[in-house]
Amino acid sequence: MSQGPLSRRHFVGIMAGAVAATWITGARRLNVSGIGASGSVSGVLSAAQRRDLDALTALIIPTDEDAGAREARIVDFIDRGLTSFAGDQRTLFEQGLTDLESRAQRSGGRAFADLDPAAQLALARELDAGKSEFFGAVRVATIAGFLANPEYGGNTGKVGWQLIGFEDRFGWQPPFGDYDREPSPG
Amino acid sequence: MNHHPARSGAPAVTQPRFATSETVDFAIVGAGAAGGVVARELARAGFTVVVLEQGPHLHKEDFQHDELAITALSALTNDPKTQPNTFRGSESEEAKVRPVVQYGRLVGGGSVHFTANYWRMHEIDFVERSRKGAIEETGFTDWPITYAELEPYYSKVEWELGVSGLAGASPFDPPRSRPYPLPPLPIKPAGILAERAARKLGWHAFPAPMAILSQPYRGRPPCIQCGFCKTFGCEVGAKSSTLAAMLPDAAATGRCEIRSLSYVRKIKLDKRGHVTGVKYFDSGKREMFQRARAVVVCANGAETPRLLLMSRSNLFPDGLANSSGVVGKHLMFNGYAFAGGLFEHRINGYRGMVVTRVIHDLYELDPRLGIAGGGGFDFRFDWGPIGFALEGLPKEAPNWGAEYKRMLRDYYTRSVYVLAHATQLPMPTNSISLDPKLTDAWGLPAIRMTFADHPNDLKLYAYLLDRAMELLDAAGATRRWAYPLERVFPEVHLLGTCRMGNDPATSVVDRFNRTHDVPNLFLVDGSSLVTSGRGQPTMTIQALAFRAAEHAGRLARRGELSKRS
Predict the structure, then answer these.
(1) Are B339 and B482 in contact (CB under 8 A)?
(2) Which positions 87-126 of A are in contact with B (Cβ < 8 Å)?
(3) What is the mean pLDDT of chain B?
(4) For residue A16, is pLDDT > 50?
(5) What is the ipTM of this complex?
(6) In chain A, what are the domain boundaries?
(7) What distance in Å separates residue B391's CA from the closest CA in chain A?
(8) pLDDT digits (tens, 9 = 90+) for B329-361
(9) Which of A142, B105, B285, B357 has its CA 20 to 30 A from that of B535?
(10) Is-contact B136 B425, C-beta < 8 A?
């Protein structure tokens, strides 16, 4: 029982009571073989909704000199999740995307995905500041998908792991880093 | 009794299957850190044993590095959806649904997914009340046994399970009769930084005692440093869980059946007030009854009092073995303070085990501080990629966007965390009880927790947090950040709720873990602990388990199980 307590419980703690929890806790029920070796996705979102969602995830983990949510194909991870383990969030996402669309139309007269980057960012900040449940769920789903095992479909090409410097070797020996080399840095 | 092949484990063993109508010598409730030890010891002593475990019987091939699946929730632990808890801050509040209790729910219990820190308690932990004085509003008291009485069993834990460490490396270590059976695991960068910080502060960093094999031991392979200890099961069997280290021995006797997916709901008594067996739900939620000459409850510090309270009867209207009224009370968890630091060079903390160096210089505090208890520190890294990205960065950092991404890139391989593990005082007002309204998926009353921190403990955690920040400074962190001192639920160290003592009016079990009220009923798990020590209770729970099993076996052989001691 001597599980060191903190990170895991922080982790569980932020899940508890959050709609976002499903993206973590439900994913294990996803049958990985059901994803399809081709990576083909049969999701629930329309093409327009997928474009908007893709644009939103790309604000959460943007593309810079390294790949971001877009290259990791988070939109596939989420869309697939909504058909399976996160099915209970389908309404939240569909309503959230409808709301995003109407906000985009109101402020810029076009779809969210077609707004200029500054306008997209302004809308995302507005959602975040308003503690939007939809935005919170998209944020957690994006991060979880970006750094989960690639079989779940959201860490395509392991780009998430490469970004943070995690190598999936699952077996190490000294030196583990710089400080346990001889001579160790100051 | 029939035999059927167990699913796995080399060498292949056949475990017996007892009919429920057959009266076995011992029924053990819970196959965790304590239950696994008690089962092995009693089976090897020649007794027939059935271990009833509510969770599944997984094997090392089942354990994978899938953070989304495992770290998430409930693959290896109790599921708040089917077994909800409620929480209130005091008796006057209405309890609300909240997941506050977490334990390993599978064969091996929490020892399957724990980090494997194996600190012994020190001499002071058993006698602190008489040495340091009473504390208001607490049930702070001495243990009925001393460190010296428990010492042989601490050594037994180290040798029977396989613990790696270096005897005498800490000047604060209590006396020991044997060295560790295995040398320490290799030091990691965070351990180097712990040594650097300790030197600067005039403290002492020593090799962490870990229930993880540094070398082959008793047919099990050493650690491969996969980096997925905490919250994960070990896929090579190098972590000394009872699943890997105890239960194969129990099965090999041919006298021990591990009956998984068996959820005990009631302990039955005869008219004399002796236990006759346990009622449980099998995997199809059918109610079964296993007869036994004696019962050992090893269900953890939350489920054990719950089971006693659910087992009330005419003889025990307030709950089985609860003539004292203290069943469920004095709930403790240990306390914590946590801080992170960023370093100039690569730590790569995700590679290999969580902790390699520990500091015990503040195990006892300067009395002039006026703070009871004390703590220990470790330097660690225990985040998987997802957990880190959600919670590992400084609180004031953005949690999405370009700057967030930059920090993920810069921080994951260069961060180290200091965790202070600390005393928590036992208070009669902190408790586990049955929720009067909410039930679980089996229709049984949910666990209700009533809990508030004692002001002394809050002072202690704040003090230790400041010291943790100093340690990070001394280690050379370029930036450091503190985590809030608020308690993070669910709690995992579930302690004190069926405390051990000599006086039947104020304690539930005697000095050998036998209940004062029922001669053939034993309770062995975190619930027995009288004080919380400074952290890492599993080692002490297992030392008590070896000792209790030896005593229960002795009583059984003498035919004294149905007599009062």
Answers:
(1) yes
(2) 121
(3) 95
(4) no
(5) 0.91
(6) 43-164
(7) 7
(8) 999 999 999 999 999 999 999 999 999 999 999
(9) B105
(10) no
